[in-house]
Amino acid sequence: MTAATSEFKNIKLHYFSVVKGSTTMGRGEFVRLLLEDAGVDFEYVKYNAAEWKEVKQQLIADKVRGPTMPYLFVDGKYYGKTLPIMRFISHKIGKYEGRNDEENQLLDEYSDAIMDWAFRWATASFNDPTEEQKQNYKDNVAANAYKLFEDILSDTEGPYLLGENISYADFVLYHMMEDDGSAISAVSQPYLSAFVQAIQSRPNMKKYLATDRK
Length: 214
Fold this sequence. Notes:
The chain is built from ten helices and four strands. By secondary structure, it is α+β, with helices and mostly antiparallel strands. A four-stranded mixed beta sheet has the order 2-1-3-4. The protein is globular and about 50 Å long.
């Protein structure tokens, strides 16, 4: 644990307790993976749908504008939206960012592309999608996304999106592949396979992934 990490305290991550029967599905896990890998101590506060409705109204009453989950409380202060939270954490602890403006721009680009993918995945997974929507997601959206990130990873000299240095965007990519069903275990592309192995072999990640992840 770095000095910056040890000074980042009193953290509470808030998200749903279960999404479609899973304790890890959805955007809260993007943030959790980052915190777990960094070795940051935090409390994970989870809500069912009815509880979130009440909590949301309280946040609005407290003048939090447009609250959504996941969100973070650090020393009692609210921080919202998935990618901004991950960038905030990365900056606070001095890890998982690019080494220069060009790399940070790439991380913005990659993470935004993954969240676009996540939105399309959700559209094809929730609220009774049609068979056409599900097939289009599988044949076009997912296939194109895997090809894109296989190509991006093939351009680097290391297993991660920026090469040898892991970034917050790598956790976003890894968990998007988790949410996409059996993608983690079934991925066959060589660079994505190496990426998955690199993530799962990181000491803190290996320890966390071996738990029940509740």
